Design the sequence.
């Protein structure tokens, strides 16, 4: 297949239209702001961008780098936009059940996301999915998207539980620290670990090892951009929340001696 051929995979033909139809139906009873609709649409556009364009062809036949780009989009970027696109009323309805409340618990969502990421990148599982692109690979991609939505839920929504901005910052920092070794490990291992790409047709002059190193470094950088930026946002919000308290506390402290002096003077008179 030509490396720059466009594709029409199930993720583009089934997943995106299905998500858009479900979202449109949900908006009838739970209207969303324009910003939320745009966020959801951007998430779908990202999925299309990596499954309709030549990125899909490169991922399936040539480059590990292209496939890891797809994985990051499905597990991190698109889920953030999809979850951000849900209006609060709809988010509340979706988390009424016990299972939903459990899965969106930060102590469950983060381990589930990490387990999904690491399990599918075990060489045997990764190669098996790629050799069964018509079935297993779609399951892999769906699991990335589902786990990604879970991991972003406590960050974006206050239901079924609200966590403070400081707790969200810690949560995101933990996600960044625990997920980043995967990409770094691939960039540093001195031999190719995925036989599928080791025997794939070569392009752009990249050897299997160079492709793997580029893929790992790119994955680590992509994770850093998203997770660390959002972590910084919540850290700054947490620090801003503590500032008024500090100012008011010092104001009360400084006013106490003044009141004491005033009362002493009155007693002297």
Sequence:
């Amino acid at each position: 297949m030509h490396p720059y051929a466009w594709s029409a995979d199930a993720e583009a033909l089934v997943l995106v239209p299905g998500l858009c139809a479900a979202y449109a139906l949900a908006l009838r009873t739970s209207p969303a702001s324009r910003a939320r609709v745009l966020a959801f649409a951007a998430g779908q556009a990202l999925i299309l961008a990596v499954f309709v364009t030549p990125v899909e062809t490169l991922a399936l036949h040539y480059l590990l780098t292209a496939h890891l780009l797809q994985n990051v989009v499905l597990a991190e970027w698109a889920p953030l936009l999809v979850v951000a696109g849900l209006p609060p009323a709809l988010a509340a309805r979706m988390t009424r059940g016990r299972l939903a409340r459990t899965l969106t618990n930060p102590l469950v969502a983060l381990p589930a996301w990490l387990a999904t990421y690491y399990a599918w990148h075990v060489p045997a599982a990764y190669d098996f999915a790629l050799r069964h692109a018509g079935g297993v690979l779609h399951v892999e991609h769906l699991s990335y998207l589902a786990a990604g939505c879970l991991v972003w839920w406590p960050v974006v929504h206050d239901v079924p539980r609200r966590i403070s901005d400081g707790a969200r910052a810690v949560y995101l920092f933990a996600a960044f620290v625990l997920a980043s070794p995967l990409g770094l490990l691939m960039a540093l291992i001195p031999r190719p670990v995925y036989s599928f790409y080791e025997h794939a047709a070569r392009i752009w002059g990249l050897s299997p090892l160079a492709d793997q190193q580029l893929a790992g470094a790119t994955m680590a950088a992509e994770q850093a951009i998203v997770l660390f930026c959002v972590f910084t946002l919540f850290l700054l919000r947490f620090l801003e929340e503590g500032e008024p308290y500090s100012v008011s506390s010092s104001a009360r402290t400084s006013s106490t001696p003044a009141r004491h002096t005033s009362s002493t003077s009155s007693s002297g008179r």
